[in-house]
């Protein structure tokens, strides 16, 4: 086996090399002066090294720049021989200087290598690591990641979540969660909340109240885990132990949260019903839109009363007379809106013949609809009035 070389430990410079000092010399001060002198030498060596590096880097940049110019001149079609020769001379000088810089670099490395070690350079901290035992932090997910996680959870555990939502006794709920610890999570609470909203929208109020109770049970377990900074699965037992005792203050807080939750469910269900009605009304409105994209109901309600009466009575002469009595500008405005909404169809007779529809048509403009246009009902059309 090769022996270990301990020669690098032969020369170590420390402030208290001499244990025996003259009685008249203040030993602590002597050691302090020696240390200060050594630190100053180290600073000077450091500055010398930094200065060398800065100057050498500058030299390298100049050398690369001259090489680049020489290549450009050599590739250029219009060469200036004199300038090219000057650049080549400069390049030769810089390359010679490069050798001097390399030599100086080796000298600095040798000087650094021969410098005695001391208490400041003898040991260096490779890396430092402080470990403090703390509970594992919850990983924060983005909204998109939470949504994907919820979808996957529901696909996998939907039946179990519903089963938990139907339990009535605390003992049954506790046993079920201990047997299925994967359900003790935010995803279960989220699913139960959505189920409560759906039940309220379906007017299954009694079942909603029951599932709401189980939702608050799950939320209290999750809240307890946050307070204790523990895994929710470890809080199932403590929660049910406390809820079974029936402490008045704790039960009051539980029941208050339950009633508040049911109120929020009712409000949200009402909002969703209103949103669904608005969507349905908008769909019906889109179905009613005429060729110009206008709603016949809205157009009819915006017509002057005399024109509304003409449409209601299906009175063609009366309609022609009312149009003639309007200013040209107003008449054109209302006629265009009637056409765009489908209340008025120009050439209705021609279109009817082409489509071979079984309805009565007249040589005169077709008569208005037999009844006023109602919301949700697409109006019959009349022909254009000359």
Mean pLDDT across every amino acid position: 77
What is the CATH superfamily classification of the largest domain?
A: Cdc37, Hsp90 binding domain
Measured by DSSP, the beta-strand proportion falls in under 5%
Radius of gyration: 46 Å
Across the major sheet, the strand order is: 1-2
Count of domains: 3
CATH topology term of the largest domain: Methane Monooxygenase Hydroxylase, Chain G, domain 1
Number of helices: 13
What would you call the quaternary organization? single chain
Number of strands: 2
Domain Cdc37 Hsp90 binding: 128-284
Coiled coil: 35-114
Pfam family, one: CDC37_C
Family: Belongs to the CDC37 family.
What can you tell me about this protein's structure?
This protein is mostly helical and 386 residues long. The protein folds into three domains: 92 residues; 139 residues, Cdc37, Hsp90 binding domain (Methane Monooxygenase Hydroxylase, Chain G, domain 1), CATH 1.20.58.610; 98 residues, no CATH class. Helices cover 66% and strands 1% of the residues. The chain has 13 helices and two strands. It has a two-stranded parallel sheet. The chain is flat, with a radius of gyration of 46 Å. The protein starts with 11 loop residues before the first strand and ends in a 31-residue tail after the last helix. This is Hsp90 chaperone protein kinase-targeting subunit. InterPro entries: Cdc37, Cdc37_C, Cdc37_Hsp90-bd, Cdc37_Hsp90-bd_sf, Cdc37_N_dom. Keywords: Chaperone, Coiled coil, Cytoplasm. It is found in: Cytoplasm.
């Amino acid at each position: 086996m090769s022996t270990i070389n301990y020669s690098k430990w032969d020369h170590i410079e420390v402030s208290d090399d001499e244990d025996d000092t003259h009685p008249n010399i203040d030993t602590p001060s002597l050691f302090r002066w020696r240390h200060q002198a050594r630190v100053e030498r180290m600073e000077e060596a450091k500055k010398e090294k930094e200065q060398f590096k800065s100057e050498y880097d500058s030299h390298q940049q100049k050398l690369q720049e001259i090489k680049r110019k020489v290549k450009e001149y050599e590739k250029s079609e219009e060469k200036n021989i004199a300038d090219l020769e000057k650049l080549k001379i400069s390049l030769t000088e810089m390359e010679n200087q490069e050798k001097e810089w390399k030599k100086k670099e080796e000298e600095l490395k040798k000087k650094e290598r021969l410098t005695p070690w001391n208490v400041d350079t003898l040991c260096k901290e490779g890396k430092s690591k402080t470990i403090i035992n703390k509970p594992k932090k919850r990983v924060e997910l983005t909204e998109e990641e939470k949504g994907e996680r919820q979808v996957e959870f529901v696909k996998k555990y939907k039946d179990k979540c519903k089963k938990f939502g139907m339990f009535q006794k605390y003992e049954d709920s506790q046993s079920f969660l201990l047997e299925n610890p994967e359900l003790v999570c935010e995803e279960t609470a989220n699913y139960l909340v959505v189920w409560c909203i759906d039940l309220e929208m379906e007017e299954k109020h009694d079942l909603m109240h029951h599932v709401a109770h189980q939702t608050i049970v799950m939320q209290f377990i999750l809240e307890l885990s946050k307070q204790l900074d523990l895994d929710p699965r470890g809080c199932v037992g403590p929660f049910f132990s406390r809820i079974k005792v029936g402490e008045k203050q704790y039960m009051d807080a539980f029941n208050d949260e339950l009633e508040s939750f049911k109120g929020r469910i009712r409000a949200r269900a009402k909002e969703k019903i209103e949103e669904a009605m608005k969507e349905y009304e908008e769909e019906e409105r889109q179905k009613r839109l005429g060729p110009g994209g206008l709603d016949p109901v809205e157009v009819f309600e915006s017509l002057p009363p005399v024109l509304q009466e003409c449409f209601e009575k299906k009175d063609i002469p009366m309609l022609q007379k009312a149009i003639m009595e309007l200013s040209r500008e107003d008449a054109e405005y209302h006629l265009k809106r009637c056409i765009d909404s489908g209340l008025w169809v120009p050439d209705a007779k021609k279109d009817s013949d082409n489509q071979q529809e079984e309805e009565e048509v007249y040589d005169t403009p077709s008569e208005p609809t037999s009844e006023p246009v109602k919301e949700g009902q697409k109006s019959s059309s009349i022909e254009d009035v000359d």
